[in-house]
Every structure is written in structure tokens, then in C-alpha cells.
Amino acid sequence: MNQQNIYKSGQPIQVEHIFQGKKQQIRVIESDNKMVEQTIILLSDGGISAVTLEAVGVRAGYSRGLVSRHYGSKDGLFIRVFKYLEDWIEANCSHATQNIQGLDAINAFILDISNNINLHAEKYRAYFCLWFYGLESKGELNQYLMHVRNLREQKHLKWLKQAQKLKQLSRKSDLSMLADFVMTSIIGLIHKWMFDMGFNIELRLKQLVNIQLRTMFSNSHLFYSVNYWGE
Amino acid sequence: MNQQNIYKSGQPIQVEHIFQGKKQQIRVIESDNKMVEQTIILLSDGGISAVTLEAVGVRAGYSRGLVSRHYGSKDGLFIRVFKYLEDWIEANCSHATQNIQGLDAINAFILDISNNINLHAEKYRAYFCLWFYGLESKGELNQYLMHVRNLREQKHLKWLKQAQKLKQLSRKSDLSMLADFVMTSIIGLIHKWMFDMGFNIELRLKQLVNIQLRTMFSNSHLFYSVNYWGE
């Protein structure tokens, strides 16, 4: 036990004070949850421009001032909401790919999005709204997004390396090219879905796994790096 | 000759007036060109948020008022610039795919982007900046963008139908699925390039044509529509 702990434990415990502190903490968590929830609805329905600190406050039953004290600014709110959604998506992904390796993990990752995207369309729409907006924005949201994107890329490369070890992919194949094609295919399909509400994203993601990527992976010996393309 | 023409040709011709009108017209075209040019630079360097009517005016050597009179608003300016860039890209595309049919046209279309994207990085960056922003925006820009996207989709479907007739693709293959995979692959790669300046988009687009799409098209019998995916 270090000095600080001894000192702290030496203080008289004020149960009432702790209780009040806890109640306060619970209220903060509750109001944060409500505001995050309402921001997700606003983003999903009307995009970035529909979100104002005031609109979030009104919908969650708080003043603009409270929203502003919580998150500082609209960008602060966006970072909070993106982190919330990223945690949620990452938890889904980890669950779906648990104890799975190689190409099966990539397939499970995409099929999990396919299975969930219509059930949780609001969350996915809000997430990718912030994703595409983050491209444009400067500062903290952009940095966090780049960080998340890099982690996702590392994960895909890890799965592809496992696949190579498991002889699911040719030794010749260029893993960073394959990772780019897998990830940009997903982002491209989702971008189309954001535009076009009638687009059957669920079906296309299943076809991506069961047709497109299957064809790609079973021809992985063709996916090797060439820098010169003769005519 | 109808009534109106007779009436018009009956007016005394004021040469001086016509000359002044032409000079005025040339000045309008010149200032428009300058402002479009400067908007492209601003978009390419700093994205949507870098563009203000004032910044465009200062860079082009005009007042904010003149920019505002020209385009009405920032959105009006964006539509003008998008149309300008769309015409430019469409002209490139038409040139590249002239007298070519089927899969060769799709390949030529993508290789043309690959060959030009680094040479004209500013224009492509500005174009796709507006493209991704248009997703988010409401109103006229969004509508115009959807219109352009539909035309592009129709063009891809036309090429794929030609390919089927030319027996480059299996009769079984689902052309709208193939069109989605081609177009979303391009958009996905370009989206990554917008994020990541070091991304070798030129190489990846060439690999898209010479490896990814070649594999896809030569396995086109696998790309048929299935709505049920058994486990």
C-alpha cells in the first residue's frame, strides 16, 4: 500500500457524500446516453447538418448549455458518438470473429455487418456518416478516425497472414493489395447504401463474401505485385 | 421565318452596343473561369470547409460581392464547379472509350482515370471532394450528383450488356451485381486515396483492371443472383 492510499483510507468516510457523488455520476451517465442516442437518430435521419447542440438538447430533454458543457462543441459530440459506435461495432466484430482465423475471420467480419446492417440501420448509418464526414474534417475526429482505420487495416493484414500460413492463399500473393481490395470493396458498397436507400446492402455484402472474395482468394496466385503493365 | 424573327431583324443594328455586349460576355466568362479554378485549388488543398465566397474572391482578384452575384451561394458555386469538373471527366471518359465496346470500354474507362489521376490530382481531388460532400448535402447539388451517378451506372450496364452479347461474360451473370462491384470498387479505392495521400491509387486502379476485374469477368458464371445463402 502506498502513501496516498494510507492517507486516503485515513479520511473519515462520509457515506452520504459518496452516495450523492454516485447519484450525480449516474445522472451524468444517463444524460450522456440520452444525448448520444439522440445524436445517432439525428445523424441517421438528416446527416451531419441535422446535428446541432440545441437539437440534441431539445430531443434529449436538456438545455443547449448542458450539451455544450458535456462535449464542449459539435466536434466533441461527434467524437463521443463515433467512439460509442466504434466500441459497439468493434464488440460485434470481436464476437463474430472469436476463435476464427484466416479467411474465415474476414468472411465472418463481413457477414456480421451484412446480418446487422438492416437490424441496426440507424447505428450503421450514423457511424458511416461520421466516417465520411471525418474525411473532410480536421482535428481530433479526423485523427481518431485515421487511428481506427489503421487498426482495422492491421486486423485485415493479420487475417491474411494467417490465411497464407494456413495455405488458403498463395505464397506469391500481395497481402497489402488484397487487404486494400477487401476493405475498399466494403467501403464502396456502404457508400452506395448511404446514397441509395433502396440498395440491398445485405445481399451485396453476402455476394461479396460468397462470390467476389471467394473468386479473388481462390485466384490469389494472380494477385501478386507488378509495377510495370505492358500494353 | 416567324413573326418574332421579322420583328427582331427589323430593329436597327447598333454595332457599338453588340461589341460592348461581347466584351462584357468575355469578361464574365474570364471571371467565371478564374473563380472555378481557384475553388478547385481550395477544395483540393483544404476540402469543403476551406471554400468561402470571400476566399475564392480574394484568390481570383474579385470582391466577395462579385462571387456572390455570380453563383448566389456557396452551394451555387459548388454546383458550377462540379458541373465543370464533370464535363471535363466525361470528356476524358468519352475520349478514352471512343469506338470501344464491352469489357474493353470498362477497362479503358478505369485505366484513363489511373493514367490521369496523378497528373491532374487537383481536379480529381476537388471532384471527389464534392462527390463525397454531395452525399451529405441536400438540394440541388445532391440531385445533380444522383443524376450523374445514374448516368454512370447506365453506362456501365450498357458496357456489360455489350460484353454479354460479345460472349465476354456468361449469360448467367447478374449484370447489376457486376456493375455494383465495378463501380463500388472504384469509389472505395478513391475514397482511400482521399484519406491517405501516400496511397498508390494509380497502381491499385491498374491492378483493379488487370487482376481483380479480369478474375471477376473470367469467372462471371459464378456471379449470378442467389437470394438464399445456406450455411
TrEMBL record, chains A, B:
DNA-binding region per UniProt: 52-71
Domain of life: Bacteria
Protein name: HTH tetR-type domain-containing protein
Entries under SUPFAM superfamilies matching the protein: Homeodomain-like, Tetracyclin repressor-like, C-terminal domain
Keywords: DNA-binding
Gene Ontology MF terms: DNA binding
InterPro entries in the record: Homeodomain-like_sf, HTH-type_Tx_Regulator, HTH_TetR, Tet_transcr_reg_TetR-rel_C_sf
Stretches assigned to the HTH tetR-type domain: 29-89
Matching PANTHER family: ACREF/ENVCD OPERON REPRESSOR-RELATED, ACREF_ENVCD OPERON REPRESSOR-RELATED
